Amino acid sequence: MKTKIMINQIHLKYCAVVVTLFLIGCTGEKPLEIEVVNHLNIDRSLETVEIDLALLQSDESLKLVTGKLYKVSEVGSGTELVSQLSDVDGDGAADVLLIQPEIAANSSKTFNITLKEAIAGSEDIPTCYSRFVPERTDDYAWENDRVAFRTYGPVAQKMIEDSIPGGTLSSGMDAWLKRVDYPVINKWYKKELETEGTYHEDDGEGLDNFHVGTSRGVGGIAVKVDTTYQFSRNFTDYKTIEIGPLRTSFWITYAPWKAGDKTIAEKKFISLDRGSNLSKYRVEVNGSETISVGLTLHEKDGEIAAEVEQGWVSYWEPYFGSELGTGVVVPSNAMLGYDKYMTNAKDLSNLYAQVKVINGEAVYYTGFGWKKSKQFNSKEEWNAYLKEFAQKVNAPLEVKVK
């Protein structure tokens, strides 16, 4: 029997993974064997492979039961990979098994999948973490081992509308410039709210000195009307989907907003995987056939790079004694162009990537690289990262299951 199944690419994280399944007389007597194939002349690592649980549990010996989890180990070495059960559609039930194999250029590796005894989870904060932050008004914050972000909720908006100090009116995405590989969200909020310290000063872990205001920050969206851009206000609702060693994900929604004579409905599904500087956004959009994904231009003294056909734009700028790169990657040839929008209005100068809305959805990746974190030393390195990221998204790893 030979069956071919293509997993919906909407749910695939950096880099997306096309899965071709060859089921040949599965009897349950041996571990399920998968081969991960890299067709690019680029070494691949820290890319999340999604394996459909429906496939795994079609084998009686791999049905999940209480007290069991999946074990994925490399054939030959026996090395076990970190794995995570993941809910890609946000319905509260796991849909896929995540792994991050290392595959050299133009080569493949084989792995076995079996069941193992579940061990009680650690109380430590996982690498990929997100949460609602009611103690700081009503932020939503997320992070991994390389970057951190936050955005703002309805209480912060109401405070501005009622002229109460401490509010924030923005649907832009804030960047927290961390330079350590462990979680900082809870630690930084506690420092800001419960001690005399502040996350606006760098004590060795990084700091929040990224200005968002009403800009798009790093990846907020807008819709162009004539010669200007319109956008939503703060998010109105949220739901944390998962946290774990390989991925955190959540959704946030916005009140309907006007763009000229159009009424826009916007809901963002956001995920961030281990090892990636870019969050993935899957945005449900009604009311427009295109959206514009923005990167704030701050002092307008940075350098822009773009490759529309490859699907990426970059902004590299001097920033508080260091340098900072932001970027957007758009898969599947859905990037239509870009616009360096300049204005004298405060915070409204942004670099926009124009993105096609397909069947009510737009998908893009966006994030940053801070020179002081020592992840990227120059705009050339940052642009090379975005270019390679786009290549991998558009030429995903292939997984064959025998």
UniProtKB/TrEMBL annotation:
Which PROSITE patterns would you find in this protein's record? PROKAR_LIPOPROTEIN (PS51257)
Mind telling me which InterPro entries this protein's record contains?
DUF4861
Q: Name one Pfam family in it.
A: DUF4861
Superkingdom of origin? Bacteria
Q: What is this protein called?
A: DUF4861 domain-containing protein
Species: Maribacter dokdonensis
Q: Upper lineage ranks?
A: Bacteria, Pseudomonadati, Bacteroidota, Flavobacteriia, Flavobacteriales
